[in-house]
Design a protein that fits this description.
The chain is built from three helices and five strands, in the order αβααββββ. The chain starts with a helix and ends with a strand. Strand 3 and strand 4 form a beta hairpin. 29% of the residues lie in helices and 46% in strands. It is globular, with a radius of gyration of 12 Å.
């Protein structure tokens, strides 16, 4: 799966995503609610560890000139999608 394919898939299933961030969670969630997941989330790098589990560097575009870069694990193996920040 490419980063574009992953982004497209996540945009389609965004209502089934569970998020876990250590910092800036409220800002990210507010931006997603206002602008939609596809307008906030961007994959910078992508590595599939196991089938359906991806390590990614991501960018979360909150507002004009405001974005947060986060290392996350995206787990597509269950009924829900989990995006978890990794420190």
């Amino acid at each position: 799966m490419t980063s574009v394919e992953l982004s497209d898939y996540l945009s389609k299933v965004s209502e089934y995503i569970e998020y876990s961030f250590y910092k800036n969670s409220s800002e990210i969630m507010e931006a997603i609610m206002k602008k939609g997941f596809g307008n906030v989330f961007e994959v910078v790098t992508l590595k599939e560890d196991k089938k359906g589990i991806f390590e990614c560097k991501t960018s979360w575009n909150i507002d004009a000139g405001v974005k947060f870069l986060k290392d996350v694990v995206i787990d597509l193996t269950g009924e829900m999608v989990f995006i978890t920040e990794v420190i």
